[in-house]
Amino acid sequence: MARPLLWEVAYAPGTTATVALLAAIFILIRSRNLQYSDVGLSYERFTQQRELYRVVSSQLSHIELLHLLFNVSSTWSLRTAEADGLHQYLLTSLILMLLSAAVYLAMLHILIHYTQQERYRQMNVVGYSCVVFGWMTILSARGVAKFSVLGMAQLPMGLAPFGSLLLTSVIFPRASFLGHLSGILVGYTIAAGLFDWLSAFWLISLAAWGIAMDAWPRLISRELTLPGVVMLAAAAPLDVETGLVDHIEITSDL
């Protein structure tokens, strides 16, 4: 017997919030006429231009309506993932998002630098598919029985990750096979318990340290600026013997 929609919303608040967020961002993208290059993740923009925010912005963004509908429908079909609680659901989704992007970029690095596939350097990808495929993999390892594809077809959960991967390749010819595959691979590592130690505190701490380690050399070399802080390299020589900087000027706009 089907349960009322309001009951489902109350049962899966994290899934409901995710679906609402994806829809809201899609409307914003359409209203501003943004394109793949504006919100997507590419190897060049991440490694050369250091646009780290694209790891998140790309996965929450959709340019095509059908792509959004597929991911929203899949996310809603996977709402049983909240059985362990809202906190664990959001934490696992964030881990899937960050690690899937890392695996995807590592794959691109190998293709670009070791097989000379330069076409991957500027390719932009968007969509929540990495997280969706990761959750499919986790739930298949837990023994969840069925997965609904767009509310029309039922797949055994054990076949859902690779079955959906094949289906998306047919429906969306431009879909990133590597992006979806990275979500599946990370999903298997999470299902195996390799990241059970990673709490929200450690995840945020590691991400913050990673951003800081990336930003500091560029701040020193003036490739990156911070509001209210001026690094005067020429006027602030480093004393070799004492290791002290003579002068750092800090400004503030009131």
What's the quick description here?
By secondary structure, this protein is mainly alpha-helical. Helices cover 56% and strands 5% of the residues.
CATH superfamily: Rhomboid-like
What is the CA-CA span between the terminal residues?
Answer: 62 Å
Assess the beta-strand content as a share of residues. under 5%
Write the element-wise H/E pattern from the N-terminal end onward.
Answer: HHHHHHHHEEHHHEE
Any idea how many domains? 1
In order across it, which strands form the biggest sheet?
A: 1-2
Number of contiguous helices: 11
Radius of gyration: 21 Å
Q: Averaging pLDDT over every residue, what do you get? A: 79
What is the CATH architecture descriptor?
Up-down Bundle
Q: Tell me roughly what share of residues is in helical segments.
A: 55-70%
Q: Based on CA inertia axes, which overall geometry fits?
A: globular
| CATH top level label | Mainly Alpha
Please render the helix and strand layout as text.
Blueprint: H1 5-11, H2 13-31, H3 36-39, H4 43-47, H5 54-57, H6 65-77, H7 86-114, H8 129-142, E1 146-149, E2 153-156, H9 160-171, H10 177-191, H11 200-220, E3 229-230, E4 249-250
Antiparallel strand pairs: 1-2, 3-4
Helix pairs in contact: 2-6, 7-8, 7-10, 8-9, 8-10, 9-10
